[in-house]
Design brief:
Blueprint: E1 12-16, E2 20-27, E3 36-37, E4 41-48, E5 51-56, E6 68-71, E7 77-80, E8 85-89, E9 96-103
Antiparallel strand pairs: 1-2, 2-9, 3-8, 4-7, 4-9, 5-6, 5-8
Length: 105
């Protein structure tokens, strides 16, 4: 596989201390996040949008190894274990917004 540069797990870091790191992810319709790796377990809280897709890399170490698309449910929180290498894509018609909370060991 060609060498790649991995980006941040979300758009902007909002807070960090010795226990957690809190990010926001904002994607316009059709926009992709940077390819990123989740080195920590995390909570993903959907705030707004209508459809979001996760596109795993071939060497992902996460639970999801196939493209997964879902409807956005504002307020829904999902726990995801570390290891995934992926891109998020807003496949909806509305701007996507989530809060991602990384849990430090």
């Amino acid at each position: 596989m060609a060498e790649r540069t991995l980006g941040d797990v979300a758009t902007k870091m909002l807070f960090e201390n010795d226990r957690v790191r809190v990010w926001e992810m904002r994607l316009a319709p059709g926009e992709d996040s940077a390819v990123h790796r989740h080195d920590l377990d995390y909570l993903l809280v959907q705030i707004d949008g209508d459809k979001i897709t996760g596109i795993p890399e071939p060497d992902t170490g996460g639970k999801y190894d196939e493209i997964i698309e879902g409807n956005v449910v504002p307020g829904m929180a999902v726990y995801i274990e570390r290891g995934g290498i992926e891109t998020a894509r807003n496949t909806g018609e509305k701007p996507y917004y989530e809060i991602l909370i990384e849990l430090k060991d």
